[in-house]
Amino acid sequence: MSRALAREDAFKLIFEMKISDISADDALSYLYKTVEKSNEMWAQDFVSVASRKYIEGVVKGIEEKEEEINAIIEGKLKDWTIQRISKVNLAILQLSIYEIKYMDDIPYKVSANEAIKLAKEYGGNESGAFINGVLGAVINELEGN
């Protein structure tokens, strides 16, 4: 399974955690129960070991580091608060920032490009540009620009 499909499933779980106020463990349990039944919600029909490792890592990592990740997001918002961000966009930002900050094997630009793709597919009309702006500011800071 590709990392892009695993990323999409991880995004859906993070979003589910936001709208249902459930834990990472509960969200992961739901994925593993329903993906085996060929539920159309998931990007993958089968969760490989590599995908499972990635998904579990980011979902649990975001739960653990949520305050720090949200502080990074808030620091890049102009005339907005984190509470005003749609849950779709917030889930995408948290996922991408987690990858950028804690996963050395994923280049910043890959994470940002994948986040923009998710935003265009699942977010509103302006989601891609919004995600691009926030992540661009995060990456520029990390690269010392």
Summarize the structure.
This protein is 72% helix and 0% strand.
Percentage of helical residues? over 70%
Gyration radius over CA: 14 Å
Strand content: under 5%
Largest sheet entry: none
- 3D shape: globular
Tally the helices: 6
Low-confidence stretches: none
Mean pLDDT: 89
Counting helices, strands and paired strands, the structural category is mainly alpha
Tell me the span between the first and last alpha carbons. 35 Å
Q: Name the helix and strand elements from N-terminus to C-terminus, one letter apiece.
A: HHHHHH
Would you count the extended β strands for me? 0
> Quaternary state, please?
single chain
Molecular structure report:
This protein has 145 residues and is mostly helical. The radius of gyration is 14 Å and the shape is globular. The mean pLDDT is 89. It has six helices and no strands. The longest helix has 28 residues, at 49-76. Helix 1 packs across helix 4 (87-102) and helix 4 (87-102) packs antiparallel against helix 5. It has helices at 3-20, 24-35, 49-76, 87-102, 108-122, 127-142.
